[in-house]
Amino acid sequence: MTPESLLKFATAQGIDFMHHAAMEPPQRRRQRTPPASPVSDQASDLREARVRRDQYGDQTAKGVSSRVRKKPQWSAEEFAQACSGMPRLQWATLCFTIGGRDTDRIEVKAALLSRASKFAVRENWPATIRRRNCNLCGRASKPHYLEDLANLVLLEWMSPDLYGTPYKQAEWFGVSYEHWHRLVRPFYEALRGRLEAWEGGALGHIASRLREIADREDETDHAGSVKSA
């Protein structure tokens, strides 16, 4: 996906990357409940937009839509400049979050599985977990669970209204709520935290570059004003 295409997707969903670009430099969210920051505010906007997108899809299927498209505040060229130099995984996470493309999902899932394997070895996660089949989708459970853990992170990431509660997560994963809360949830949170960090890094990169662009434009305008005076 190109930066121009990403900007169109974001604009159509009412997402404003640039809202906090003039604020203090953002920090990546590495805590479960982070302090308020431009990055956490923008990430919250993206999560709300995912819910709105699901709702909009339902409305469109019924022939009803109340979505209002906003004109982007920055040009496509400026946004492309702001995206340049972003690490590949951060870019794929952002594209998946906004566009939901399978190609980006595959790349992000592979990265999550790699992280899960490292976490499992380093933190001595159990090799298998006894699980039942999913009552929500009919998925047959497997004792080897890392791939399903990554799948659930991505499902909740894109549809927090459907998978955002521990009870729904436990049901999909095929364990009791008590088992989920006691054993599995720490594994889930560790993996989801990596996804949050990739998203936060992408948003922070864009905000930082947009501030640089705005500062250069201000300096150019000021120099022109001084010269004309």
Please describe what this structure looks like.
With 229 residues, the protein is mainly alpha-helical. Helix content is 66%, strand content 0%. The protein contains 9 helices and no strands. The termini are far apart. About 17% of the residues have low confidence.
Q: Could you tell me the strand content as a percent range?
A: under 5%
Question: Biggest sheet: strands, sense, closure?
Answer: none
SSE class:
mainly alpha
Oligomer: single chain
Look at the structure and give the mean pLDDT: 76
- Rounded Rg: 20 Å
**Which percent bin holds the helix content?**
55-70%
Number of strands: 0
Which residues form runs of ≥5 with pLDDT under 50?
A: 20-40, 55-72
SSE sequence, one letter per element: HHHHHHHHH
| Number of discrete helical segments | 9
Morphology call: elongated
Q: For the terminal residues, how far apart are their CA atoms? A: 45 Å
Record the SSE blueprint:
Blueprint: H1 3-12, H2 38-61, H3 76-83, H4 88-99, H5 102-122, H6 146-158, H7 160-163, H8 166-173, H9 177-228
